[in-house]
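[step 3/7] inverse_fold.run input=structure_tokens len=228
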């Protein structure tokens, strides 16, 4: 059982939880089993000397809640509290984000989590530059993701996504879009706004017909697009 980070020896505990100047943070919560119902997972981030911005930590809290729901949906024999403990243990060894010195998340990796939904609170990650959520069970991306105007790289391969967000053209700094292994048949009209910035798209193993491929090539003449 892990040491309680909120005992009278909290300073000592906090040092054991985090390096002094971490470049990567895990969603792992070294919280004892009896504490899981009392402490919001994001609270441990607030305790850190170089803590994640509080607004951005709300996304991590929502993410863990979503993972719990997905886990219980897949295994009817466990409770939410049991699922949360399993997720804490699993994420103990999974570094999912990188933060800058201001406590803002700039890289987020949610690959291979069997995630069915990206929480809409992702809109809080206004400084996010790289986002990867490959090999999950996603059927769509939340429209809120189009508010992340600092995003350079978006990797959503090997999911079940049928449509890209309607306002994807708002991602004015997007450089690379990797969508291989999905169910896409078309792209939103707004993607034409990215003709000057979007340099690479991977549409391998999707459902595009030749007519749609020609249409995309015309609206994105400066982009390298792969379909094989």
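[step 3/7] decode complete -> sequence:
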């Amino acid at each position: 059982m892990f040491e309680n980070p909120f005992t009278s020896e909290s300073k000592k505990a906090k040092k054991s939880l985090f390096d002094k100047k971490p470049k990567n943070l895990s969603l792992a919560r070294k919280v004892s089993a009896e504490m899981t119902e009392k402490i919001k997972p994001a609270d441990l981030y607030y305790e850190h000397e170089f803590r994640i911005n509080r607004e951005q930590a709300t996304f991590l809290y929502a993410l863990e809640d979503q993972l719990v729901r997905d886990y219980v949906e897949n295994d009817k024999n466990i409770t939410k509290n049991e699922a949360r403990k399993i997720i804490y243990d699993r994420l103990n060894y999974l570094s999912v984000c990188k933060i800058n010195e201001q406590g803002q998340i700039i890289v987020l990796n949610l690959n291979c989590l069997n995630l069915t939904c990206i929480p809409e609170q992702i809109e809080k990650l206004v400084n996010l530059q790289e986002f990867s959520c490959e090999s999950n069970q996603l059927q769509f991306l939340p429209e809120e993701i189009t508010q992340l105007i600092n995003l350079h790289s978006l990797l959503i391969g090997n999911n079940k996504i049928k449509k890209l967000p309607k306002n994807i053209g708002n991602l004015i700094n997007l450089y690379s879009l990797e969508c291989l292994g999905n169910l896409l048949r078309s792209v939103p009209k707004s993607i034409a706004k990215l003709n000057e910035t979007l340099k690479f798209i991977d549409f391998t193993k999707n459902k595009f017909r030749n007519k749609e491929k020609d249409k995309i090539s015309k609206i994105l003449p400066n982009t390298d697009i792969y379909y094989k």
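[step 4/7] annotate
The chain has two domains: 1-95, 129-228.
The first helix runs from residue 10 to 17.
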